[in-house]
Amino acid sequence: MIGFKRVSFKYVMIIFLIFVGFILLVNIDLKNNPELPVEDIFESEEIISTSPLTKSYDFYTVKDGENLSIIFEEFKVPLNTAYKVFRKDSAGSLRDIRPGNKMQFTYLDDEIIKIEIIKDNINSLVINIEDEITITKIVKNPEIVTSFKSGTIDSSFYEAGLKADIPDSVIMDLAYLFGWDIDFVFDIRKGDTFRLIYETVYAEGEIAQNGDIVFAEFVNQGEVFNAYRFVNKETGKEYYDSSGNNIKKAFLRAPLDFAYISSHFDPNRMHPILHRIKAHNGVDYAAVRNTPIRASGDGVIKFIGTKSGYGRTIQIKHGGNISTLYAHMESFNKKLKVGSKVSQGQTIGYVGDSGAATGTHLHYEFKVGSKRTDPVRVKLPSAQPVPSEQKDNFFALLAENNKLLDRFNNLDPNAN
Are 133 and 110 in a shared domain? Predict the structure, then answer.
């Protein structure tokens, strides 16, 4: 049996005191250093990140003969959504969609959220596609700027107009206004003068509509022609001279803009191809291929097709037993056929050299009854004057325009 040596009480007490002292030291150190690193224990959670939805746009210009149903289908507008849009259009705003209108389609990823139809620089429609379809008409606030311009012709009217800083569209409108009385190639002379007042519509600092002529004057070979804009209650905007006579004639003097006469009406002309005397029963206007040809008056298509030496030809029957003929055309307005109604100034076809033609030109004839007449010299009947019940309003407007004209004349001749 193994014996154990008795441990004295003194040693036990020493060991106990050492242990107690160690515990006290640890407590003191914890109080002096409270921010000892502590291990945090937590559960991890998986975070899944998602990409934001992508917004994209498509743009389109409405073409002739198209409607919204066709366009919606092309741009993947769901059939149910298209149906809701058309049902929402109680005012019928979406039915008035015309060729040239701009469209913008907005998508969120593959989902259509908005369609904007821009009718012009002022008017547009916005279709918001949400739980509830909304159609909003947007109208920009227009500002009308009035300008005065004048010029003297040195070589051609068109060049003089550009030199006077007149917009292309206004130059063409001015030529159209006086086109019943003046052939702007055949009749123009060096020294002829013109002056005009026109309005331009701006929206948000940009031109929204081309200038509209308020007043115009043209002095051709000493003869003064003037035109005042007046809104006739029956026929809308018209232009009258200072006596209230309509400057518009029932027929245009020439069916082309800025062409020149290459061959006049001549019953004893030597034919350039047949080389024998053969009456030239119309006027030839030389012009570049595909120049637009305008109907010289309101009427109905009597013939459209190919006619022997005339080539591609259109004949129009007008009122008053008058008919006109347009020959050697390159092509026709595709919408026209026998029986189609045409209005004065409407494009009916394009200049070419079909048939027995020595070059690109338009052969134009003007017939009264069975008699062919020189279209350059025939006296053209006028449209209706200012209605008697509206004359007081017209002459009051004429007086206001003349005051405006005097004010402009006292300023720089080409100031805005």
Answer: yes
Report the C-alpha gap between 160 and 175 in whole angstroms: 12
Burial of 57 (0-12, 13-18, 19+ CB in 10 A): exposed
How far apart, in Å, do the first and last CA atoms of the chain sit? 134
CB 213 within 8 A of CB 240: no
Helix (H, G, I), strand (E, B) or coil at 68: helix
Q: Residues 254, 232: contact at Cβ < 8 Å?
A: no
To 10 degrees, the CA torsion angle through 389, 394, 399, 405?
Answer: -170
- Domain with 344, as residue range(s), is 260-373
pLDDT digits over 293-316, tens only?
999 988 999 999 999 889 999 999
DSSP label at residue 93 = G
Alpha carbon distance 160, 173 (integer Å):
15
Q: What contacts 125, CB < 8 A, 6 or more positions away?
A: 93, 94, 116, 117, 119, 135, 136, 137, 138
* pTM > 0.70: no
| Dist CA 280 CA 357 (whole Å) | 13
For residues 314 and 330, state if they share a domain: yes
Does any domain span residue 195? yes
pLDDT in tens, 196-223: 999 998 887 777 778 899 999 999 999 9
Q: Residue 298's closest CA among 317, 313, 314? A: 317
